[in-house]
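Please fill in the sequence for the structure shown.

STRUCTURE ENCODING:
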C-alpha cells in the first residue's frame, strides 16, 4: 500500500485545525503583556493561567499534527515566535521579581548574620561565666 502525500485540502484542514489554538496563545500573550505593563497583579494571574492552558492545548495539537503529517511552516514559525515571547515575558517577570526581592531586603532586612551590630558591639550572647572586655 502506497501512502499518498497530503493534498491541499488536507493542508487547509490541518492549518485551520492548528490556527485556532495558536490564535488563542497569541491572544493570551497580548493580554498578559498588557497586564504586565499595567502591573495589574490580578490580571497577570488570570492571563498567565489562561496562557498556560492555551499553550498546553496548542502544544498538544501541534504534536499530534507533527506525528500524523506535517505542520505548515508558517504556523510552525508563529508557534516558535510565541514561544520566544513566552520566554521574554518569563525573563521580564523574573527580573521584576528579583528587583522587588532586593527592594524588600533593603527595606526590611532579615536577621543579622554578622558578628557586629551597627553600634559595633558583638551580637553574640555571652555564655555563662565568660569574660567580656
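FILLED IN BY: designer on duty
SEQUENCE:
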Amino acid at each position: 500500500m502506497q501512502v499518498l502525500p497530503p493534498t491541499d485540502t488536507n493542508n487547509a484542514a490541518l492549518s485551520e485545525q492548528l490556527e485556532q489554538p495558536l490564535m488563542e496563545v497569541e491572544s493570551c500573550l497580548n493580554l498578559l503583556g498588557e497586564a504586565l505593563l499595567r502591573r495589574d497583579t490580578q490580571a497577570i494571574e488570570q492571563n498567565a493561567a489562561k496562557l498556560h492552558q492555551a499553550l498546553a492545548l496548542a502544544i498538544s495539537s501541534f504534536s499530534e499534527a507533527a506525528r500524523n503529517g506535517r505542520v505548515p511552516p508558517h504556523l510552525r514559525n508563529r508557534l516558535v515566535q510565541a514561544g520566544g515571547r513566552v520566554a521574554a515575558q518569563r525573563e521580564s517577570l523574573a527580573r521584576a521579581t528579583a528587583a522587588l526581592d532586593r527592594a524588600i531586603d533593603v527595606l526590611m532586612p532579615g536577621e543579622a548574620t554578622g558578628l557586629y551590630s551597627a553600634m559595633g558591639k558583638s551580637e553574640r550572647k555571652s555564655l555563662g561565666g565568660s569574660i567580656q572586655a
